[in-house]
Structure formats: C-alpha cells, structure tokens
Amino acid sequence: MKYFLTLLLVVTFSTNLWATHIRAGEITAVRISQSSLRYRFTLIIYKDTGSALKVGDGGIFNFGQGRIIGPGRAALQDASIDGVFHEQNVGNETQRVVIQFDHTFDSPGVYVVSYTEQNRNSGIINLGGANSLNIPFHVETILKIDPGLDINGTPQLTIPPIDKACVGTRFIHNPGAYDPDGDSLAYKIVTPMQDRGVNVRTYIPLDDPNISNTREDGGSPANFSINPLTGDLTWDAPLFVGEYNIAFIVEEWRFSNLTGEYELLGYVTRDMQILVEECNNNRPELEVPADTCIEAGALLQAEIKGFDPDNNPILLESFGGVFQQNSNPAEFLSIPDLNPVPEFRNSPASSLFKWQTDLSHVRERPYQVRFKVSDKPADSSLPELVNFETWNVKVVAPAPKRLAARIGSNLDIELFWEAYVGANYAPVMQVYRKVDSYDFDPENCNVGIPPESGYELIDELPIDQTNYTDNDKLSPGATYCYRLVAQFPLPKGGTSYASIEKCITIPLDVPAITNVSVENTDETNGEIYVRWTSPLEINTTLFPPPYKYELIRFEGFDGLGQRSLVTTTTDTTFIDSGLNTENLPYRYMVRFYDNADNLIDSSATASSVRLEALSLIEAIELNWEADVPWSNRTQNFPYHYIYRNRTDAAASDTDNFELIDSTLVTAEGFTYLDEGNFNGTPLLNDRDYCYYVVTQGSYGNPILPEPLINNAQVICVQPGDEIPPEEPKIEVPGDTTTVEGPNGTPLVILENPNCSRVVLEPCAFDNYSNTLTWTADNIDNDIASYNIYFSTTGEEESYILVGNTRNTEFTHTGLASYKGCYKIAAVDRSNNESTMSNAVCFDNCPYYELPNTFTPNADGMNDTFRAFDQPNQKCPRFIQGVEFKVFNRWGGDELFSYNTKGVAEPNFYIDWKGTDKNGNELPSGTYYYTATVTFDVLDPSKAKQEFKNWVKIVR
C-alpha cells in the first residue's frame, strides 16, 4: 500500500503542469419575494488559476422543478441576473467565481437544486489522484418550501473552502455559516458527488488508514470529524503532501408550531479542498471571551487576542451573521488603530469586536461569531496555519416595564404595564403567575422564566394590550405573584427578560385550607388530617360569628364526581377516615355559615399529596404532586423530605420509617431518586421498600401559618421488578355484535350509546368521542397506569398508543368518527407492561335518506334533488361514497349519473339539478332512480345500502 501511495503522489506531481479546474464550491439561496415563491440562487465556484478552462464550460444548473440552465457558459450567463461571471483571485492559486440566478417555484415542496460541471482539478489524492481530472464536480442544495414554516432561505457560508494544512499537524476549518432567518444549524460530513444522486466512487475518507493513520499527538487512528453544532471540521492529522477534497452539509432546522417538533428545512452542500504541505510551523492560538447574553440596545465590546508560538506575524479575522445585519452590523477592528481591514501584525495582536445591538437582532438562537487566526511564516514557501474559535452571543429582548397590580371589584386581580418597546416586531405578551414570591435576577443569560421557579403561564396577549384581569381559580388568603415576558415569533423567535415581580394578596374572607395530610395509608381504613383557618379578614358586622363549617370531599384531582359531605362542625380540624388512601387522592372544600345559618361562601379546594414510584435496577424513582391553593415550591421552605422503611443493615425492618434524604424542589422539582446511598446500604432487588414524602408549602401570607406540612400516602415498590401486571378486562355493557374483520380477525362491536345522541348534532359535526371502562386484578398492588391502544380497522398490527391514564376509564376525544377498536394494557411502577386486553370496537351509526320530489325552478327552495339534511336526525352520516343514476319512468334509458368515486371534493348530498347527462333540463314528470351508498363502518352488513325509488320533477 505504501508503494501505491508513493506512485500516486508521483503521478499527482507529474500532472501539476496539466490544465486543472474546479477545486470547491456551494449553492446558497435567499427568498426575494414576499408574495411569490421567488428565490435568488448564488453559485460560488473556486477554481485553479492554472487552468485554461473557464467556469461554466459544460456547466448545468438544475432547479429541481423541470427548469435546467445549460449546458455551457453562454447559456448560464444569459439566464443569470446580470449576465456575468464575477471573478476574483483569493490566493492559494485559487480564483473565486460567482454567478446568480432567479427562479420562481410553482408550489410548495422539497427541491434539489444542483450544479454539475466537468472537471475537477487534477491530482486530488483521495479522489483518484491524477484521474480526479475526469471526475465531474457536483454540489446540491436542498430547499424545503412549506407555508406552515414561513419564509425561508438557506444558510450562508462566509469563510472560503480552500485551506492549507501541514503534514503531521492537526487541521481545522470552519465554514463561518450563519442563517439569516435565525434557524438552527447542524453539520454533517458527506461523500463528494459527481452528479445528481451519484457519489464519487473513488472517494476515500481522510481517516482511512491509506490516507492518514496517526494524530498530531502520535496516537492512532487519525481523526476526521465535524462538530455538529459549531461546524469546526478537524483532520488530525494529514500524512502526505497533496490536495484532498471532502464535502459536508450545513442543515437548517426550524421549530414547527403545527407538529411541535423541529423540522429540517434543507441544507447546503460544501465541497472543499485542503492543500497539505510539508512545514516546520506551529499553529497560532486565540483567546476569546466566554459565551454571553446581552440585552438588545446595549453595546457589546470584547477584545480578541491572538499569538503565534513561532512569533510569526498573525492575521485576526472574524465571520458570521453578526456582520451581515441590515441594521447595525458588528465591526472587527484592529487594536490600537481600529483599522477595519484585517492585516498581518506582529504577534501577539488584539482586535476589538464591537456591536451596537438593537431589537432587530433579537432571536432565540445565539449568534455564532467565528474568529480565525492565521500565521505568516518567514519562509514564504511554508503554508500558513490557522486556528478557529467560536463565540456564542445571544441578543435578548428587554423586559416589560412597570408591572402593577390591584384587587378588582370582584376580588379578581387587575394587572397593568407600560406599552412594550419592541411591539413593532410582533411578539406576544406572556403572563406568568405563582403563589408566593420567587426571587431571581432576570439578567445575563437568565432569560424568560426559570423552570424551577414554579411560575406557570396563564395567558398570552396581543402585544398592544397593556392590562389583564386574572380571575382564574384565585384563592382568598393567597399571595399571587406575576411576571411578564415578551415572546417573539418564529422563525427567529426570542424570549425577553422577565419583568420585575409584582405580588398582591387577596383578602382572607373565607376559610383557607392549610392541611390535607395522609396519616394512614390503607385500602379501606385510610385517614387524612384536614385543617383550615376561620375567615380571618371577613367583615364580622355583615357576617357575624360564630361560624359553622361543612367539609366536602371529592375523589381524584379534578372533576366534581364522588362528592360527599364529610362533617358539619364548628371546629377547624377533622380526621377523615375509612378512605382508600392507598389508591386514590382526595380533594376537600370547606363551606361556611354565619350565626343565622346563612351560607356565606366556600374555600378553595385542596388535595392530598399523591406519591408515585418507578422501579429501577437497585434504585427507586419517586414523583409526587398535589392540587392545592398554596405553593409547595417556595424559596423560604425549599425542601421536601423523603422517608423510607428497611433502613436497617439487614433491610428487614418494615415497620419503622426513617428520614433518608431531602430534595431541593426549587431546583429539582417534585422528584427523587433513591439509589441506596442512605447508610451506604444498597437497595436489594428481592424485597419491597416503602416510602412517603413530607411536603412544605406556603400561601405567602404572613397572617397564615407556614410552613404548611403535609404527608403523601405510603407507597411500596420492589427494585428490579420484571414481572408485568395482569391483563385488564374491558367492560362490555349491553349487547355486542361479532363480525369478521381484516384478515379474518373477529371484531367484538359494542352497542354504541352515542348513536342516540349524534342525531342532535348538525350535519357537519365531526368531533366524536368514545368512552371505555375496564377492570384490572391488581395482584401486587403496583399498577401505576394504563396504556390505551387504538386502531381504525381492528387489524392486529395496526394498534397505536393514544393515551395513558391512572383511572379505569378513558374518553378518546377529537375523533373524525366513532369507528375503531381499542385494547388496554396495565403498566406497573417498574414500567412493565401487561399483555393487551381483548379488543372491543365501536362502530359508526350510518344514515342516509332521499326525497321523492323537488322543484328545480331557481326560486332558491328545493331546487335540487338532495339528500335530507334537516332536521338533524336525517343528516347523511359516515358516508364513504355515493353512486346515483336516473332513468326514464320505465327504468330503461339512463338519463343522468353521478359517482363520488375519484372526486377530490365529493358531494354526498348529490344535488341533481334535474338535467340529463348533457346538461339539458328534463321536463316535469316522474323518473326512476337508483342510489348505492357506501358507509364507513366495521360491520360489513351495514357497509352498503341500495335506494330504488321514483322522484317527481315539478317545474
């Protein structure tokens, strides 16, 4: 192999006297019209100055939509925007050639835009050596035009794709890419191409042992990679002198509000060349600041330092989208003369990065500023070495100002603030709320609302709105704190700093529940301690004491079902017993009466703390939640406490619980991982461990007690549990029908209770739902939830997960029809899933009815033969197709026909105008018709209905 490479190099050097051609290039695009899909494409080619050939000779530019320019230089010039190939010598025996084309696409879609030309330059070692002269040069840009993702252009590349490297020294390149739309960029190495869909077959990657097999540090193997986030391309390290070509793509990604995911918009392919030479030179170094955030409108300045270990002169340069802004672009100035033109200077040298930011620079993604340092060896025959560093700068919108609050007439909270300074950029104003204060500094890179703060987004408002009334589940006695954030629209996006916090307390003129604490965990004899305060700030003249209280209990975290009057008392504490605290959370509300037994008002509801556990290998993960009017995530009482049994060395003491740890919920949330660190005793996978959690909370009101201490129920779980729970059984109320489904699968169709209700819905109704109930034999008492699977056809392999619930009832909403089959699986605390239950299905309720007369006289009433659509019980429902034919009264000649099959927008109502197949009016009289209606159902016996009858035309 060494002999082969030596021969290859000799052949390469022998061809240097030949005419050579293309070294590198790429295609970029920008959209130049707001009203049409018109784009401007820029083709950039780097060619060998020793070549007698001109760029464009034989070249073909393909827009990927049927339009092709070329082949030939003249055709390319004629189709370009100014008829010229712009040429510029850029050093390294290389000429930069640029030409631009405009193109309007017919429709949205994904387009492969490409340029192909013979020939590459000769002697490219990893593309076949001297034979590379015969390999076409080809680059592609993928452009996705999607109306749902707004206007889009491709990434722009600012650093030329020709670089020199030294044998045995790590090589670094960066394309200096930026996206004018603020999209996220990602980088991948690909194989160079020679035509559409055709890779260069002779390509050898740079980390192939035949090309390079050692790194700069002497280690092996060689490294050839690209950082997917920064675009730093590294080859560590070249082994042989010569020219090498590689290719990589720069992808652009944008978040889609429609899918809730980041969507790939396309990419630019860069085909680049690396010139490797022998040299006795060390790479220069850079010093750049740490990544930072800055408020829009502020001046950002930073000193960038470079130096060379060999004390050679150095050149400092900077690239990126910050220098391409339409408003206030950044500057990079030599120190001390502030010269904007980069030039070689004695090492060490410094330059000033200076950027006067403004609101147009705000975006979600940080700007990547690329700094490049090059050296200039005293021996001019030696190659220059370079180094790159990336500085991430995020421009953040300023915070909304002057937030104020007051109690409204209806005991709601009215907010006011100053008109937002960035309203011209169409952000929305987000309103956040929490109970009790959470102090943080909205500055530097602390943007928006910290997730650990406990603040919740309660509304989004038009940016020109400067007031808001909050009346959503406000609890008297609680201190509510608010912050505002401006959220800028995609594609650039951007979140402002948060406003200064504003807090206000609602007067406590009703009881306030302070405790809902599980004192005993049991399926039938569970106990909960409930405590509340009297209405401390009530007008006792209008509502004279003493007060009587009714304690109301609900099952679950939401809904008003299973409501019970627990007790009537004059006390403010109660122990509620006989409960299933093992499996259910409970909510409580207090109603109160004055001394004349008049009902005055009621408290907010407050739930018990519900603890869940997930079994892992030698570990248990705990999660808990509560629906309460106070905050369980407060800075004054930030810890929740974890208790566990089996804390003795033998892990055999099941009766006694010990505090094993605490968790900082303001940072980590309501979760805890027990890995057996308490007392250094690991958890054993052959026994159950039981836990409960003690929470701390506060109303943020000094007249109410704090902290509010409440216990979750006890939960037991075994680490490493691999035994799935029992299969659930879906309840089958009423009658069922069994039909043959796909592939002979029997389908059990339930009697659909919704069919009697759908007749009340309008004909265009399309928002259906199905409700399932089931039972499960919870043998190990560790079922955590249930997975619900759905199939529109009942075919065995077609079921998909559509929901998960802790309850044994599920309503599947937002359906286009009732038709479909369900299976249920139980999931235990170890994430083991049972086998799926037997399937049960719901079917549609088909209906269709036709009249026997109509009057096509253009009076706007009964002008067509139309399926009934009034009243609602006669609406056509769940129709797949209609085939309609009209004959003369003897049933002989076919006069008219209509079939919805293959029609893009079928009219299932028919709406025959009383004409024949040529559009001629038929005379008044009686005609015979047939109609075959196909319904969307699972039951084959209901799939088709034949209508044969007479219809009378009255003119």
Largest sheet: 8 strands, mixed
* Radius of gyration over all CA atoms, rounded: 37 Å
Mean model confidence by pLDDT: 91
Structural class: mainly beta
Query: Could you list the spans in which at least 5 consecutive residues all have pLDDT below 50?
Result: 1-19
Instruction: Please provide the count of β strands.
Output: 66
Net shape: globular
The rounded distance between the terminal residues' Cα atoms is: 95 Å
Topology at a glance:
Blueprint: H1 2-14, E1 22-31, E2 38-48, E3 60-62, E4 68-69, H2 73-79, E5 86-91, E6 94-104, E7 109-117, E8 137-145, E9 156-157, E10 162-166, E11 171-173, E12 177-178, E13 184-190, E14 193-195, E15 198-199, E16 223-226, E17 233-236, E18 242-256, E19 261-277, E20 285-287, E21 292-295, E22 299-307, E23 314-319, E24 331-334, E25 349-356, E26 367-375, E27 386-396, E28 404-407, E29 413-416, E30 428-435, E31 456-462, E32 467-470, E33 479-487, E34 502-505, E35 513-520, E36 526-532, E37 548-555, E38 564-569, E39 573-579, E40 586-593, E41 599-602, E42 606-607, E43 610-616, E44 619-625, E45 639-644, E46 658-664, H3 665-668, E47 671-674, E48 689-697, E49 708-711, E50 715-717, E51 729-730, E52 736-740, E53 746-750, H4 755-758, E54 768-775, E55 783-791, E56 800-805, E57 809-815, E58 820-828, E59 840-842, E60 853-854, E61 865-866, E62 879-887, E63 894-899, E64 910-912, E65 925-935, E66 944-953
Protein name: Gliding motility-associated C-terminal domain-containing protein
Signal peptide: 1-19
Keywords: Signal
